Amino acid sequence: MGKAPHLAVLLSLIMAIPGCTSFSDPSPTEPTISSCEEMPTAPGCFEEVVTVDDCKPDQVFNGNFCRSMLRPELLSFGESEITLVVGSEMQALTPSFLGDAPSTWSVNPQLPDGISLDPESGVISGKPTAKSPSKTYTIIASNFAGVASESIDFQVLPIAVQSIWYSSGVLHCTLGEFCNQTPPFVEGGLPNTWSSEPPLPLGLSFSENGSIFGTPVSIGDSNHTITAKNEGGSATVAIRVMTIRPPPEALYFDSSEFTLSIGEQTSIMPFVSGGQVEIWTVSPELPSGLEMGPMGAISGSPTEVHGPTAYTITATNSGGSIQATLIIEVIDLSVFNLHYPQDTFDLSQGDEVGPVQPSWSGGAPTSWSVSPPLPDGFTLDITSGSISGTALALQDWSSHTVSASNKAGSDSTIVNFRIVSLPPESLSWDGVEFALASSEPASIAPEYQGPSIESWEVSPPLPQGLQINQSGVISGTPSSRTDWSEYTVWANNSGGSVSSTIWIAVHDLAADQNELLSGMGETSWNGWPSPILPIGEWSFPLAYAEGGYTSRIPVISASHVGKGRMVGYGHESWVSGGSGQTEEDFSLKVVEWVCGPEADVGLAYGAGFDGFKDELEADGHVVHLSVTPENLSGLDCLLDEFWNGHDDEDNENIISFLMDGGGVVMGGHAWYWSYSNSDLAHNYPGNKIAQETGLFVSDAWGYNDVDMSEIPHPLERPRAAIDAIMDDRIGGIQLSAEEATIVDSTLSTCTSVVSLDFIDFWSPLRDVVNETGWTVIEYGTLWEDVGYNLGEDPVADTLLRVETALTQGLPADELPAHPSHSQFPGEVPPNASRVSESVSIDGNQSGLHPFFGYSSARAHLRMTTGLYAAPGDVVTVSIPDHVVDSGTYILVGAHSDSLWGKDQLHRHPEITRWWYADENVLEVGNAFGGPIYVAIEAGSILGNFEVVISNAVEAPTYRHGDTTLSDWLGNERVKPAPWAEIGSDQFILTVPSHEIRELENPDELMDWWDQALLMEHEIYGFPDWPRVERAVFDAQISAGWMHSGYPFMAHDLSVEGVVNVSQMSQEGDWGMFHELGHNHQWMPSTLPGTTETGCNFASVYLMEDLVGVSGHGAISPDQRELRMRNYFEDGSNIDNWSVWVALDTFLLVKEEWTWSPITEALSVYYEIPDSEAPSTGEEKFNAWVLHLSNSSGFNLAPYHAAWGFPLDQSTFDALDHLPIWVDDPLRGDFFEYQAILRELYSPSISEANSNTISWETYDNGTNITLTIFYGTSDGGNQPSSWSDSIVFGSTEVGNESQLITGLTCCGTTYHARIRAANDAGEVWFGPLSWTTDYLPD
Questions:
Q1: SS3 of 160, please?
Q2: E strand map for 967-1065
Q3: How far is Cα 814 from Cα 927, in angstroms, rounded to an integer?
Q4: What's the pLDDT score for residue 1037?
Q5: How far is the C-alpha of 843 from the C-alpha of 939, rounded, in Å?
Q6: pLDDT at res. 469
Q7: Is 722 helix (H, G, I), strand (E, B) or coil?
């Protein structure tokens, strides 16, 4: 081997050694050529070189040497399943393996056609040429070291069907005939299956090439989706298959010509071959009366003549049609059986007839005639034969022959005419039922405008005193009462007669009263009644009782209602007789009057009258229990309650029952109902039928003793009273003073409760007011003798009540501006602007606890708006949803005292108007005008909300802390309304605006009043007062100079001083403080006789501590001294302990300890549960002494006992832990107190000859002398019964003792008592007892 090759091999080996990358590596030792040249065989100079040719077949040259060959392992093509499509090049699959490369590749079985395995590389590739099912192929790779294999599943699918279409989209077939659709055109692969959705019509199928063929068995027209499919995919096409019938082939009839007669029944049948006919037609239209049926038959009866006519008959089906021609002629019939539906005409002159059409059989007439001619005004229609016209001239019967003919023949008939005068026309009346009053003229006129009447008749005979005249008017004066009867009235003339029926009854209310009250006297019933006001036209009172607030009220009343009768009792228990035999007899008499004798009487379900059953049956009646208004059939009357649970349908049934002649007896009171309900006229159950029955249940009350011995005065019937007023004021028939008083008394019980929608009651009264004018009452102060004197003119008083009802009841848009407003509360300036404002309202108003009994504790709280409603103006108020129906009202007017109890009026008696907030938008107003308030129900939690008030007048308003002084001076005080409000969060004054127009310092004024109110709250121990108090100043108030309540009321004479802070600061106002004090009086702590005393705590306190003066002459030392001395000299009788004397009792306590213990004692009551609060007089006296003693720290029981308080021993016992107030000013001057000794003690065994007894003087009394009585027997409280005594003398509070000597020794028993005596009397204490000891031995 040469050097150069040697070097090359050497370099190659060096490069192949791992880690050798370059010749710069310093570690190897570079051979020197020179040495190898010298020593070629030296180590390192000769290396063996291996080449590929040196390797064996089972070895592999790695570039350096030959190593053992590795067999291939883990052969993989990356896929285990291959799906191919014929004609599509597959993606070549290259094998992967571990080990050395295979030298040979093979596959078993042979791959699908077109797919090959490269024997050198093992790559599988190609384009399949034929489909092949899925099959597993094993590929084998081998070398000299071994073999590896891999299995792959190959599937070759045919080319997918891409699209198909038929040469025609419609396959036309004929039923029963073979039809064929040529094979479709196919793109893509060939299908191997064909299908249709829906399935092909029965009889058709697919061939292998997709053609459709077969013989259809039914007609039809259907759409199909044809699907061609092979393993590669599918395609669809739509085709329509239509199968029609074969066309008809031949059509003929029995004959080609037919002659028919009118009315002749005929049937002409066709004959047809070929396909079934679906449609038959004929042209032109067949003669009238003939028709073609669904099978082609011509049938019917011709109705008119018809010349020979050719008719084309066409038979058609889906396959085609065929025609035939017929000639048809219709010939006429002779006329026969001619007649008219009416052949006799009995007419009145002017009657119109017709047209009256004739009827006949056979052929149609072609001509008409009549002989003789018809009467004047009538004609015969020569084309139709109808007769028509108007009867003009009178005539007797005439006969006329009417003939009808045609070419085939004729017939005739006779008609008859008579013409007479016009008969009477319809007769009617202004109503069907007429109730007349006995002994009063009456007239019932018919409503008739027809031909003149020659005579009038009536049956049965009219009530006595009535007759019918030649004009048909029933008139006269019925002389006695009659029940309802039906009368038939005939109006007659030569032309005939007409009749009408009416019902007439004659009522004699006085006779009814006599019948019912006959034999009656004083009665007594169970339960307090309500008035039953007989306000109906035919209603009348029966019996009266003493009223709770008036002298006389009707408690039993009756009424005629339609054809029925009704009696109303003021209490439900009275229906069945009350409490005694007399009352029961009357109730049975009522039942007979209402129901009739031996009546079917229904007792209402749940009314509690079942116990009356036996008495009713004993009186001959048939009784039905548990009756309801829904089924009153078969009954003569119903006994029920006014206070019932009937709904509108029940009430309608009751009214219908009455109107039709049934009877009703009802009882019930409304006074208790009214405590928790409102709107008596519409919500009280019994009053829901009052407009029809005429019996109205009032919410007043009366006593149960009823005098039934006298017949009520005729003018005690409200309708009679109303008529009398109209006669007096309009008709010129003046009432006597006595009559006027009765009228006023009668109507005064009605006008305050009967609502204005009782039109029949109110209309005549309103007419009188409109005729006579509204009452203007002259304004006057308390001391002036001006105004309106109640009682001077009772009729005027009644009309004044009517005015009040109108101003209190009319809707806002009907309210007038009452002319008396100019007197009071005053005029709104004519130029005053109307404004719309949004006002914030505090809807959280708790009100006061009901125990603040003089404060109107639960009254609605008035929220000031600062706006005023002008008289007669309609003011709109908008409120939020949650305020609607919350108990809130809109109040218009501040002066809420009713003055009906006054003798002289200085203003109208009622001038405020309350409007319930039952809608979001309200229309409100006041005929007199007044401030506008939002009145919140006590206890409401409505939150703050806004109200919008429109069309109102601005009023002077000062809100302390909100209104600036500059705003007041420059704006508020000049606002135009006649009434103003000055207020704070403690107190609001409602005053005439003219009183504050010059007020310069409202801030100082309200500071002062705020202090006054805070002191009021303070002295009564209720500093967190929850209500803003109000004072309203009025021309006149209901009671006194001022009175308490909400608001408390005062005369307007007080305003000048009340708004003058200088005057208030210097002089105060005892009356204002007094009334505010009333509002703070807690009923359980208000002792009997101190209603006008406890309120003066505030007057004394504020006058002394706020104003700095005594404030009232009655509490001067001299007055008090004189008053107290008189009281105690008179025996300190608690019945005389009131007002000022009672105040002295409290003032002595105040002067000893200030007001604090009194305030503290009052505070205790607020914490006591309502159920435990003292209520009786004695409970209150004892409780007060307990609480006041505990708050003062002294036992004040002896002090109050001195004043005459009825104290229980338990009160003395409960306070015996406290010291007695022994320094009270009464002692020794006004009252002699007895001593009180306690803790008396003696040893049971005393010394042999002496003993010391001891005691505690709890109260040393006044001028007391103690005497100790003792002896060997107990002498009781008789000094003479004691053997020995020792005068101890006076005593002081504390422990004391007395030595008794001279006793007999040796077991002798002694007894002792102590007497405390003064000028007022003596009191004994004890007994004590002891036994003397023995002498020493």
A1: coil
A2: 979-983, 987-992, 1029-1034, 1042-1043, 1048-1051
A3: 10
A4: 97
A5: 10
A6: 95
A7: helix
